[in-house]
Every structure is written in structure tokens, then in C-alpha cells.
Amino acid sequence: MDETQGGLIGRLVALARQQRVLSALLIVYLALSAAELVRVLLFDRPRSFEASFYPAETVRLPQGDRTFRWTRGNGGSLLRPLYGQIVRIPLFVPRPDVTAEGIRVEISIESHGGDLVTAYPGAWQTFDYYLPALLGDDPWSDDPEAMGLHDFAVLEAADGEGPFLRPRSIRRLPPDYVQVFAGWHPQPGPPSVWFDFEVPTTFVTAAASGEGGTDRRELGVGVGELLWLEELPADGIGLHGWEEGAEGRFAWTKGRASLRVERSESSRLLLRVTLRPPPDPSPEPLTIGFYWNADFIETQVLQPGQGWTDIDLLLPEPSDGESAGVLTVNPSRTWGPGRAGVSTDGRELGIAIRSPHWGRERQAGEK
Length: 367
Fold this sequence. Notes:
The protein is an alpha+beta fold. The protein has three domains: about 1-45; about 50-230, no CATH class; about 235-360, Jelly Rolls (Sandwich), CATH 2.60.120. It is built from five helices and 23 strands. The strands form four sheets. Strands 15, 16, 17, 18, 19, 20, 21, 22 and 23 form a nine-stranded antiparallel β-sheet that branches.
């Protein structure tokens, strides 16, 4: 064998070794891609979980079947994806031990809020929350188009729920194989947060019947399917409805409430809010927290029996193209005339509020 043949054989051997290395790298790459594909198919989806809840039940109502879950004992937690900035939480308390005064339920969202509401026996009630004021900007900081929410859920209008939406079915589209095999990137999706519910008392049907019933579950409060809305209704959320009084148009909040406030070219940074506390005989002052969009602004204290009070809020500079903002008011407690035995009014009253309007800018030296 001459020298030329020997060199050719050496190059062929080297090429074969190189091909084995490339083949091994390709096998490793395909194995990692296959593992990522399995992870995407099985685990990369909106996270949903129930802790300390009994299995879901269905109750038939005139507007259609409604699904709810009883808490196990005094409380339970739901982990749900954020399908919008506004959530509606339905509560259901068909417990024979709950009197007409209702039962107090504490609702916390991602450990924020601690809203104390009153649920009355036998009737469905809904409580609405503007989530940026509770959770801040972070969950919505990504570009909605990049998050691809339409790839994660089919949202349809729910009968009898007005503009609110609920995810009737959560379906996965076929994964983007090019994306999976090119870089092992997780598919984007909405973050999930915890919704916590606590009640002071529970009820056991079997123990109460005295006839050896079979339902020995310790029941707290029934929580319905969470509903979602992308934008605030024109009349706001968390209100009992607008009324006409001697002082003009106003509304009582149910507790935490949020209003959309339009801006104009002449809008200033000073927003005037007019409030009045309920006729609560408690001597404790009422503390009101104010939020503009996702930003906390300040707190104000109103005294019992105080009349209509003007409060001027200095807001952050508007962002480019901002045509409106969301004002959230959060009173430190609520008062129920029916619960207190003062009248037959079964509403839970937080604070009376008039339509906010823009005021003049503060002058130098003003507080």
C-alpha cells in the first residue's frame, strides 16, 4: 500500500470517527427534544388545583346548571389561572344552620385582600375584584399577544352572568414542534394565583339531622366556578348600584370597589373623590385605601357620623396613550343594617361614593 492510499485510509477513519461523534450529538439532541415535548404535552399548561375542598357538585337553577365546591371545614384554597383582570367569585350557602343574618366569609387572593363579606343562606351571591390593585403589575407585565391566551382556553359567555366569562373547557392546541425541537422553550401562558376562603363555623348534615344520616362531611361555604372579565363595566364593580339622593347620584360599595375614570386632554393629576361612611354606630373610625390602576395612592380616615367628605388624590403621571384609569376604594370594614337589626336592608355597606371628577392642581405649599 503506497503512501497515498495510507493517507486516504487515515482520512476515512477520521471521518468515520467524526460521524460517530456527530451521530451521538444528534441522538442526545433528539432525546432532549423528545423529553421537552413530553413535558410540554403533560405539564406545560395553566395550573389549576383545589386544596381542602370536597368534589364538585351541580345545582340546577333557572339560568342553567351551576357548579360549586364545599370547603372542607372552615376553609379551602383554589389555584386558578388568570384569564382576565377582573374576577367574579360566586358564593353559595344552602346551610340550614345559617340564619337570616348570614355568615361572614373571608376572601383572600394570593394572600392579599382579606375581604370580609357576608353570604346569606340559600342564595347565590357574587363578589367582584379588580386584581391589579391586589396583585400589582407583574402578572400582566408581558405582552398579551406574546402570552397567547387564545391558545390556552375557549372563553364563552355564561348564561345569566352578563358580560362575565368563564372557561367552559381548557384545551391544548397541538404544540409548536418547530419551537420545541429548536430551543426547548416553554409555551407562554397565564400565571396562576391562589384564592383562599375561610368561614367561622361549619355544618355536618348527619349530626344535625339526629337520624343517623350518611352525609358526615364538615361543610363550610360553597364556592362557585370563577368568572372573568377583561375590562370593567361602565358602572364599575363591587357596588350595590347607583342611586339618586338629595345630594345627587351615589352608590354604596359592597366592600372593595373599582370604577373606571375617563381622562381627557384637560385632565389633571388631581382626582376628587366624595365619600360618606354608613350610619354604623361603631365608634371606630373607617380607614379607606385608594388605588389607581395597580398603584397604591394613600389612605384616608373617616369618623363615624361624618357627612360627605371631599378627598383629593394626587395620581401618577399618565402613561402614553392612557385614556382612562381604574380607581379602587377599599374600606377597612363593612356594616349590614339587617345584620345589625336596624332595618330589613340586607345589603353589606362599605362606603358611599359619588362619581369622581378631576380637580385643580395643588398649588405650591398646599398639602
